[in-house]
Write a structure and sequence with these properties.
The chain has one helix at residues 99-117; strands at 2-6, 21-25, 34-42, 45-54, 65-70, 81-92. The chain has 121 residues and is α+β, with helices and mostly antiparallel strands. The structure holds flavin mononucleotide (FMN).
């Protein structure tokens, strides 16, 4: 289990239908940039999560960030502590030609996460 604090709200990215919590990890983890299926615990509830580690090249950014989108969750995570466990690597990060192309991929990632975690939750 890795614990982290949510350092930005959960509303950015909502314009794409994928709000994300930007995380500050308590202990750094050394994993390849990309997307992972993860179980995420917040306030004693476990959610399915899409964890992204990378620099957001589609947006022209370069700083390594950790973000998570929770499935079947709505609410505000700002300032909360959460913990997560990575279950499976889904894909490497990519630079998409457009935000629309990124969102199409995020929809496929969500299906992959649902399929992977259906057995575990
Ligand atoms: C599951 C997931 C996968 C992502 N994959 C990529 C990616 O492959 N390439 C990329 O440039 N950004 C990727 N992103 C980051 C998005 O660009 C970012 O979350 C979105 O633009 C909203 O950013 P903001 O919350 O900082 O506004 C991913 C985000 C999530 C949650």
């Amino acid at each position: 289990m890795t614990t982290a604090t949510v350092i930005h709200g959960y509303r950015n990215g909502s314009k794409f239908g994928f709000p994300t919590a930007n995380l500050r990890l308590d202990t750094p983890i050394d994993i390849e940039n990309g997307v992972y299926a993860a179980q995420v615990e917040v306030d004693n509830i476990t959610y399915k999560g899409m964890l992204y580690v990378g620099t957001r090249p589609t947006l022209g950014l370069t700083e390594k960030t950790y973000e998570v989108h929770l499935l079947h969750f709505s609410g505000n995570l700002y300032g909360k502590t959460l913990s997560f466990e990575i279950v499976e690597f889904i894909r490497p990060e990519q630079k998409f030609e457009s935000v629309e192309a990124l969102v199409e991929q995020l929809n496929r990632d969500r299906e992959a996460v649902e399929a992977i975690l259906v057995k575990t939750l």
